[in-house]
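User: I'm new to structure prediction. If I give you an amino acid sequence, what do you actually give back? Let's try with this one:
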Amino acid sequence: MKKVFRLFGFVSFIGVSYFGFTTYPKLDLISGFSAKSIASGHFIDNRSQEMIEKGDNDIDMIDLAKNKIEDAGKFVVASVYGLKERKAIYREGLGATLINDDFDVTKPYLVPKRTKLNNDLPFPYGNNEPKDTVFSNVDYTKLNAAVANAFDKKGIINKRTRSLLVIYKDKIIAEKYDTGFDKNSKLLGWSMTKSITSAMFGILEKQRKFDIDDPAPIPEWANDNRKLITTSDLLHMNSGLQWVEDYATISDATKMLFQAEDMTSAQLEKPAEHRPNTRWNYSSGTTNLLSGILRKQFKTHQEYLDFWYSALIDKIGMNSMVIETDMVGNYVGSSYGWATTRDWSKFGLLYLHKGNWNGEQIFNESWAKYTAAPTNTSNGRYGGHFWLNAGGHFPDVPRDMYYCSGFQGQMVAIIPSLDLVIVRMGLKEESNFDFNGMLKGIVGSLEGVD
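Assistant: Good question. You get back a string of structure tokens that encode the predicted 3D arrangement of the chain. For your 450 residues, that looks like this:
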């Protein structure tokens, strides 16, 4: 019996030691992700805790977290086995923010001033319902079948699409939502928010207030080889800076998103590993660095907060959109943009029309061309903070397609040759969801269109 107890004790010791070595360091990230996700989904989109836990938080290890929503105080706490408790607070206008123990929740804070679009025009240029339009060259049977095929069948959950919207010649020709979601549901775009950040530089360029080909305006780089990095290099993700983008481990990206107070500094502090424009390396830290650069273009924090909405988001009627901030008030331009599916499609339409929104030029036509031009060393996969199909990544889709892409399979696809915008929101990555097949089916429903 003593041998049995010794063996049991030894096995327990090994188990605890293994847990401590492999999992404990991750607990801060697990509880942080969970608290932030629950707070955003609940307070921004009014989802229940159960719905978020079964959906957004149904990720290996994240589902270990125990969560508690405090509606009165507008915050969420999460922990794993009672360890590493994290807290996320919600503030109207700024969304949810994961905070640390030093954060002063009583301190006054600024919020962006919003001017919401209010006219009698139908979607997409107004808030009224879209007009019914039937196109003779659209095979609606094929289209509806392609759309339906992107969703789970009853009792079979393997595609996890939440919404799919198809816009042809500015008209909605297909729109479908999964159970629990509708046209008013606000959905997290994750890295699609990067494309919003990029657009802000296009607007500054049109206003002749910024030149992306100049060295990035970062004083900390003035006395080393990073002084050669241009803002365009940052937008192209080929600055040569060190960065590890890995969401399955404790990496630069996860430490930034779930531990950093100032997310704009994470990439700024990294050394250069390569000369600019010689090595493409995807980095959320780069995008948040760009958000920090944007902030420094304005005299006040209020002007920075307002600019994203007044110059773009509210200007094109993305009334539902919220871009969340970090603890020091920077927009988390890499990851935290929320909007309805229809409002995400408006952003795609803006690029489809080369920056023109109902007669007003938001950014120059040349900016849309810059955005869709392949970045050096990306093998035709990446442009100016947009993904590309120039290299035929999706073999059955036109090569001129470029798109916003986010974690868990968020997509706003722009196909200029077909006058088409497609938005898919869900919980499945490209590796587990047939994007090529979905896009092929939709494109194939347009008869007589090359």
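You can read the tokens as a compact description of the fold. Here is one thing that stands out. The first strand starts at residue 66 and ends at 70.
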